[in-house]
TrEMBL record:
Claim: Chloroplast is one of the keywords in the record: no
One Pfam family of this chain: PPDK_N
Protein name in UniProt: PEP/pyruvate-binding domain-containing protein
Species for this entry: Winogradskyella maritima
Keyword Signal part of the UniProt annotation: yes
Domain Pyruvate phosphate dikinase AMP/ATP-binding: 622-947
Keywords: Signal
Leader sequence residues: 1-19
Highest rank taxon of the organism: Bacteria
């Protein structure tokens, strides 16, 4: 075996996928259907594959003289072609593979993950592409597959870096790739129960129990059900029940401590981890104390994770990790038996589950270390304060979110790929979560949430669903509209401004909606979150179980509210109170509308400007606030702000005075006539929808016309000479960012964050010049128009300027808000960072921290697997990463505190409001901080001060003591 070398295993470049002869999703689906009905599936013929590389017919075995060989199926040409064109591997035969090719590290282990997903599809769809091919005798040999699997892991486990960087993926692969007579028995149990419930509907209640709260008591329940219903079952159904019972008996068989001891004895290295496992076996062979047993299993799982690379041989490492999976499986079958009766015992269980989450790879070791103290708020006293209890609750909720995020980060890309042609693939993520401790952890956290809600009167009222303790408000506000529950990829969903949406994750370019709830929060300072906060759009986080429970409410008109304290109400229209109904009468009368100020705008500036020549006082006059504030920052922080040039409002306006092709009028006249006609339509009684449709149609035409507009010769000469003088290089020799910068952004009442176009790392001269027109035109896209139309009285007076700055290929980047968004403390900092460029602003699952003058609290680790870098050749290059180390280091935190202090002190002198918080975009390159943007942080004060929202938020005494011996 060749030694595995994964240099730069933490970060590796993703190659571009060729689209040559690529099959469409329709074609792939047709091919899948063909394989399902074929007695050989994707296979062609049985062959001998010899050690010397030759292939022989079935009756002509490989001679011993050339090293022998193995026998298995070859693949149809269509299956081989699919591998080349679409990188899809159906009906994988392990023994036919070379280890490195199967691992597929250069494609983020895509082929390995496909193998796992294929096994899942086979388990839920009677073999999937092998529905008939699974009976093709000799297609594969189980002993060859198992031998290959063992060799694969012995090869893979030589690499310490792979183990440390991909611990979760490694343990999952060990469950799916045969290597030790093993199988993923829990997945098989779920698949068999699902098939039975679909075939015999009365079994559905038990199936739901097996999926949602599996425990050993399910086995006698299934046996009893089978006994009572046997006379009504067909022969095939009886066989299926007997197979399920056999699987469940295997699944719930007690752990074989003798076998475990034999495995420990066979470990060649006798170190502290070996001793710890041996002591556990000695102490707990006959214990019936589930809490003690679970706690010690958690410690063992954690010890194995921490100590596995201290074992020199990959053989020992494989034994150890297999023991880890055995112990996890045992714990999963027993955890439902641990039913805490007191608050103390419930908090102990949560601490144990957190340790198990670390030991099984659902969270990283550094993440556990960062929050361990927050979980251990239980002192030797008999009481705990409400504040400390809420800290434990919020931390425990976070761990469940991080755990499910780990599953998604590893498998979402391959699941999304398969879901395009095989919808059943979407269930894979849920299956992986259910086969982990995250399922029981989520239930336990909900139990604590319900207890805390009762103790503090902070109760959610979300329909009649269970597990409401997992729901928490992120942004205050209220709304009424049709409820839309999106269980899947949201990016292709056409949203409506008057509907309320529940997403697994918010779309990165979300258009205005009435309200949102999300399973994947993203991060607190993404553009979507900031816009929602700005407009008072109610926003809450919920669990995936909550989302599924709310599917039955899809399509109903509902009332939705989030209080300032974070409790959530969701009810049908019929259940609304008189007070709640009156909210919407008032809203129509007092809707806050903002006028974009144009009285001081200067359109006489028609030459390109050096960013050094502007400051904050020029915002809204010569250019937008991005350029004006960055010019201000350049004066304050000359070493941490790049050079820049500005295309002011006047240049845009001068170009808009040109004739618009085919219209007989200027671009500017066309724009103003569009809004004038829209106003006339409103006065004549036209519906909002028809007025909006008219505007969007005209603005789309304007958008396309501006993109194809001729740039004035004098402007072309000006921008080229400005490039040389400001950046020291001519256009086409330095990559730059083009950032839209309008006069509607960063008003006191409206942020406008992320509405218009930013172009990344453009090098080519023609692309830069065309980019100028694209950025101008972006002010007239549907998304930009809808957000500002919701708030602005004169949207026709939106003027775009453009800020052009040289690219900085940062290692990581993000956003800082100079206040604690969740804590409400004006002296705190909320920071969200992702690797690479453009971090955190587009809703990535970013590393989010609350930084105070003394502390640095992890609110969420990153779960964004991909990121972009900015090569000197222009464009972007995609990379992937792992999560086994934090993004920000201690030196970065110190730099952030220093820059925040200076921003507060210097910007306060420029602002009428000394308490103004700021939204700062910046990044680090080789630990040097670079500032890219600063803008006022805008919150919706109307939503925060709403009498109704205050009325539904309970008054909580954070210092109130609760006895740890309290019964649940």
């Amino acid at each position: 075996m060749k030694y595995l070398v994964l240099s730069l295993a933490l970060l590796f470049c993703m190659p571009e996928t060729t689209a040559q002869n690529k099959l469409s999703n329709t074609q792939i689906k047709a091919l899948v259907d063909t394989y399902k009905s074929d007695i050989r599936g994707p296979y062609y013929r049985i062959k001998w594959f010899c050690e010397d590389g030759t292939i022989r017919d079935p009756k002509d075995p490989c001679p011993d003289a050339i090293g022998g060989g193995i026998q298995h199926a070859s693949f149809k040409q269509s299956a081989l072609d699919l591998r080349k064109s679409n990188h899809l591997f159906f009906g994988e035969i392990l023994a036919s593979n070379e280890e490195r090719a199967f691992l597929d590290a250069e494609n983020n282990y895509d082929r390995l993950k496909q193998y796992q997903l294929n096994k899942y599809l086979a388990s839920v769809d009677d073999g999937w592409v092998l529905q008939k091919g699974q009976y093709y005798r000799g297609a594969l040999q189980s002993e060859d597959e198992e031998a290959w699997g063992k060799d694969f892991f012995l090869w893979l486990l030589k690499d310490d870096t792979f183990i440390e960087n991909n611990f979760y993926l490694l343990r999952q692969a060990l469950k799916d790739i045969p290597h030790n007579g093993d199988s993923n028995i829990a997945q098989l149990m779920r698949s068999q129960s699902k098939s039975l419930s679909e075939d015999y509907e009365p079994f559905m209640d038990l199936r739901i129990k097996i999926h949602g709260q599996p425990e050993e008591a399910d086995l006698p329940a299934v046996k009893e059900f089978y006994k009572k219903n046997a006379s009504k079952l067909s022969k095939a159904q009886k066989e299926d029940f007997e197979a399920l019972i056999e699987t469940m008996e295997t699944n719930y068989a007690p752990i074989d401590f003798n076998d475990l001891q034999n495995q420990v004895n066979s470990l060649r290295a006798k170190n502290e981890t070996t001793k710890q496992i041996g002591q556990f076996i000695k102490d707990y062979q006959s214990t019936e104390n589930m809490s003690q047993m679970a706690s010690h299993v958690g410690d063992i799982l954690s010890a194995i994770r921490d100590g596995v690379t201290s074992y020199p041989s990959s053989r020992d490492r494989l034994l150890l990790l297999d023991m880890s999976n055995q112990l996890e499986h045992y714990l999963l079958t027993k955890m439902q038996e641990w039913k805490p009766e007191t608050l103390q015992n419930l908090l102990t269980k949560i601490g144990t589950l957190a340790c198990v989450s670390k030991g099984t790879g659902l969270i990283e070791t550094w993440e556990y270390d960062a929050i361990e103290a927050q979980l251990n708020k239980v002192s030797d006293d008999k009481d705990i304060t409400v504040e400390d209890l809420n800290t434990v609750l919020n931390t425990a909720r976070s761990i469940v979110e991080w755990s499910t995020g780990m599953v998604k980060a590893n498998y979402q890309e391959v699941v999304d790929h398969y879901s395009e042609f095989e919808p059943m693939a979407y269930g894979y993520i849920d299956d992986r979560v259910r086969s982990s401790i995250a399922l029981n952890f989520g239930e336990t956290v909900s139990q604590l949430g319900a207890y805390v809600a009762k103790a503090t009167n902070l109760n959610n009222a979300v329909m009649d669903i269970e597990g409401q303790g997992a729901i928490r408000g992120l942004n205050p506000g209220y709304a009424k509209g049709e409820l839309v529950v999106v269980d899947g990829n949201p990016d292709n969903i056409e949203v409506s401004t008057n509907k309320i949406y529940i997403f697994q994750r918010p779309p990165h370019d979300l258009k205005p909606v009435a309200g949102i709830m999300t399973v994947s929060e993203g991060n607190l300072v993404s553009h979507v979150q900031l816009l929602a906060r700005n407009l008072g759009i109610p926003n809450a986080a919920l669990s995936y179980e909550n989302l599924k429970d709310l599917k039955k409410q899809d399509g109903k008109t509902v009332f939705y509210a989030v209080s300032n304290k974070g409790n959530v109400i969701l009810k049908t229209e019929d259940d609304m109170t008189k007070t709640e109904n009156k909210l919407f009468e008032k809203q129509e009368k007092s809707k806050a509308i903002i006028e974009v100020p144009v009285d001081q705008i200067r359109l006489d500036q028609t030459s390109v400007m050096n960013m050094r020549d502007v400051d904050a006082s020029d915002s809204g006059k010569l250019c937008g606030p991005k350029a004006a504030n960055l010019g201000e920052l350049k004066k304050l922080f000359p070493e941490q702000v790049v050079e820049g040039l500005i295309i002011p409002f006047g240049i845009f306006r001068a170009h808009m005075d040109q004739q618009m092709p085919g219209e007989g009028k200027s671009y500017w006249a066309y724009l103003n006539e569009t809004f004038k006609t829209a106003d006339a339509m409103k006065k004549q009684g036209s519906s909002e929808a028809s007025v909006e449709a008219y505007q969007l149609k005209n603005l789309d035409k304007l958008h396309k016309a501006i993109v194809n507009m001729d740039l004035k010769p004098e402007f072309l000469s000006d921008i080229k000479s400005s490039f040389r003088s400001i950046f020291g290089k001519s256009m086409g020799n330095i990559p730059v960012f083009l950032r839209s910068d309008t006069n509607m952004e960063d008003l006191k009442e409206f942020t406008g964050a992320g509405l218009n176009l930013t172009l990344f790392n453009i090098l080519d001269e023609n692309e830069i010049l065309n980019g100028v027109k694209r950025v101008w035109a972006s002010a007239y896209t549907e998304r930009s128009f809808k957000w500002r139309q919701k708030y602005l009285s004169n949207p026709e007076n939106v003027f775009p300027s453009i800020l052009i700055i040289p690219s900085v290929d940062v290692d990581y980047s993000g956003v800082m808000i100079t206040k604690g968004i969740n804590s409400g403390n004006d002296q705190d900092l909320t920071v969200a960072f992702s690797r690479g460029a453009g971090g955190a602003v587009d809703g990535q699952s970013a590393e989010t921290r609350l930084i105070t003058s003394k502390d640095d609290m992890l609110l969420a680790p990153a779960r964004q697997v991909d990121y972009i870098r900015l090569p000197a050749s222009g464009g972007t290059k995609r990379y992937v990463t792992t999560f086994n180390s934090p993004i920000l280091n201690d030196d970065n935190i110190k730099e952030i505190r220093k820059i925040a202090k200076k921003v507060r002190s210097t910007m306060a002198d420029k602002s009428d409001d000394s308490g103004q918080a700021y939204d700062v975009e910046f990044g680090f390159k080789d630990d040097k901080l670079w500032l890219f943007q600063i803008r006022p942080f805008v919150e919706n004060k109307q939503a925060k001060s709403s009498e109704y929202l205050n009325s539904i938020a309970p008054k909580i005494d954070s210092n109130k003591n609760i006895k740890l011996t309290s019964a649940l």
